[in-house]
Amino acid sequence: MIVVMKSGSPEAEIAxxxxxxxxxxxxPEKIVGQHKVVVGLxxxxxxxxxxxxxxxxxxxxxxxxxxxxxxxVSREFRHGEASEVVVPTPNGPIHIGEKYPVAIVAGPxxxxxxxxxxxxxxxxxxxxxxxxxxxxxxxxxxxYAFQGHGESALGLLAAARExxxxxxxxxxxxxAELDIVAEVADVVQVGARNMHNxxxxxxxxxxxxxxxxxxxxxxxxxEWLMAAEYILAAGNPNVIMCExxxxxxxxxxxxxxxxxxxxxxxxxxxxxxxxxxxSHGTGRSEYVPAMAMAAIAAGTDSLMIEVHPNPAKALSDxxxxxxxxxxxxxxxxxxxxxxxxxxxxxxxxxxx
Length: 352
Ligand code: PEP
Ligand code: MN
Prior knowledge:
This protein is of the alpha/beta class. The chain has helices at about 10-25, 50-55, 115-125, 150-165, 180-185, 200-205, 220-235, 260-270, 280, 290-295, 325-340; strands at about 1-5, 25-30, 35-40, 60-65, 85, 95, 105, 130-135, 165-170, 185-190, 210-215, 240-245, 275, 300-305. It has 2 domains: about 1-65, 2-Layer Sandwich (Alpha-Beta Plaits), CATH 3.30.70; about 85-340, Aldolase class I (TIM Barrel, Alpha-Beta Barrel), CATH 3.20.20.70. The strands form 3 sheets. It has an 8-stranded parallel β-barrel with strand order 7-8-9-10-11-12-13-14, surrounded by 7 helices. The site of phosphoenolpyruvate (PEP) has 9 residues, from loops.
C-alpha cells in the first residue's frame, strides 16, 4: 500500500503517521519524489481498509493498494516516478535512469591478464564507455572451462580503474566472496544463473554497492522483479535490471532470444533502471550492433557490451565480443540514435 502525502506536508506529520503505522505492524518507507512524498507500506495489508489510514491525517492525499506481488520495486510504490542509480566513480558520478543519457558498460567477459584489461579499459574509455566490465569469478557451464582468475583478477580491475577512472562492474558468484568483490566493484553483478539464488540476493541487498541483476535465462518478468524485490527488501534500493536474453526454442543462429519487449514492460511495472546486454543476448558479435541500436531506440537506460582486444583468443565469450575498433565505431553509430531519442550526453559547451 502507499500513502501519498499532499504537497507541503510537514515533516513532523509524516513522521507521526509513520510511527503510528509502525504500531499497526507495518513497515513504512518514506520516498521523497520530485513532486510528492510517498510513504510505502510493506506488511500484511490485505485486510486493511485504506480509509482507516486516510483518517490518520488531513495531509494524506490518497491511499492506494499496490496490487502487484512485487511491492518496493513496483512503479506504483513510487507513485509512478522513476528511480535512478547514482554510481560514484573516479571520473565523477554516473547516473543510470530514464532521465539520463544512456550509460555504457564495456569490457571483456573475463579478466585474463593485466595488459589486456588495462588496454581494453583504455580503449573503451576513449570510445565513450562509463564502466569497465570483466569477470573475476566466472559461472561456466563446464567445470573444465576457464573459471576466472578470482581474487587476483579483482586486483587487476582495481588497477584498471586507477588507470582510467572508469567504474567497475564485476560478478559475485558466491556469498563467501561478496566482501572482496564489493571492495573493488562499483556495481556488483548478480548473473543470470544466480538470479534465483535467494540467499545471495539477500546478501547483496544487505551491502551498500549498487546491484546489477541479470535476468535468469528462463525467468519470467515477474520472477525477475521478485528477485529484485529481495534486494530492496534487504535494504539496498540501488538495483539495475539487466536483460541478457532468454532461452527459447531456437538456438540455432543466436545463443539466446534478446527480449527487448522488457523495455516498455518493465518501464510500466517498475521504477528501477534498465540495462540491455546484446552480447549475451545474441551470442554473436555481428548481431550486437543492431540490437544495441534497437535497445537505445526502445528506451534503454544503459547497455552492456563485451569487448576483447583479440576475440579469437578470448578465454570466454570470444564469439560475442567486439574488437575495440568495432566498439569505437559502434558508439558513434549509437550516438546518432541516442541523440534522436534525447538520451545522449550534450557535447560540452565550447568556451569562447
Ligand atoms: C557475463 O556477464 O559475462 C555473464 C556470465 O552473464 P550472464 O550471467 O548474463 O550469462
Ligand atoms: Mn560473458
